[in-house]
Every structure is written in C-alpha cells, then in structure tokens.
Amino acid sequence: MDFAHLANAVTALSLARDATPENFPEIPIDDLRRCLHSGVGASKVLHFTNPDIFPIWDAKVEGFRLHCENPGHPHMPNPSHPHMQNMANYLCYATAIHAIKAENGFTNFYQNFTASFAARLGRINVPNYEFSEVRAIEVAAFELAQV
Question: How far is CA 144 from CA 26, 47, 121, in A?
Fold first, then answer.
C-alpha cells in the first residue's frame, strides 16, 4: 500500500460508495489503484464498496473480453501487465457490464442464470446465496473464460 495516495484513495472510495451507472466513470479510481499498486485489487475493493456498480476485474475475464482464448497468447494480460494497471481499461469493462444489463432479455438471462447457479450449488451441497446483476455477469464471464 502506498500511503502517499491513501487520502485520495479514501476520497475515491467515498465517491464510489454512492456511484450510479451514470456517474461511475467520473470517479477518480486511479487514486485507489495507485494506493494499492493493483488494478485488480482496486476493482475488488470497489466491488465490495458498491457491488451493484463495480464489477471485479481479473486477467482471465479481461482476456475473454479481448478474445484472447489461449492463456499463453502474447496479448493475454496478466495482473501485473500495464493493460491491467490502466483503470481506463477497467472502466471499459465496467461500462460493458452495464450495457449488458441494459440489453433486452437481460432479466430473463439473470433469472435463468441465478436458478442454474443455485442448482449447481445444491448439487455440491453449498448453500445458495444471492448476488447482484453485475456479479451475475462477471460470474458468467469468469465461467466462460475457463472454457
């Protein structure tokens, strides 16, 4: 943690707590990344601060989003790659998540996905839990990235 950026990171998190789908791109989230030295880490903190707005970002999901199917592919980002440290790239991902939420048919997808996920958890004796629409999309992307 870089304490030189802590005050600005706290301010960014305060703004993130009240973020909306309309204003989240304006929040200075790069201050949080600088404080944590991690774009992926910043996305996790943002997600736990406001899970309805900020998805968790990782290299596998970003590789899937960028159509890098082979983990050894030279364009497949890793967590320390400059691409994954650029919060503008994270904001593109988050914006795409919100665009998916706005698609016709998303409500049907969300209902089917959460029902299927609950059934999957039941088969392995894990209690079901609810998650946000944003989390459903990122879980689906993560699962697709594993294929």
Answer: 30, 20, 17
Going by C-alpha positions, the residue among 34, 88, 58, 53 that lies closest to residue 10 is: 34
Distances in whole angstroms, Cα of residue 48 to Cα of each of 4, 43, 53, 62, 103: 23, 9, 10, 19, 25
Question: What is the chain's mean pLDDT, rounded?
Answer: 89
Please state, in angstroms and as integers, the Cα–Cα distance from residue 78 to each residue in 16, 30, 39, 45, following that order: 25, 18, 11, 19
pLDDT (tens digit per residue) in 76-129: 566 677 888 899 999 999 999 999 999 999 999 999 999 999 999 999 999 998
φ, ψ (nearest 5 deg) of residue 55: -80, 160
Packed helices 87-102 and 133-146: angle between N→C axes, nearest 10 degrees: 110
**pTM attached to this predicted model:** 0.85
Report d(CA 126, CA 119) in Å as an integer: 10
The alpha helices in the chain, defined as continuous H runs, are 6-17, 30-36, 39-49, 59-65, 82-85, 87-102, 106-123, 133-146
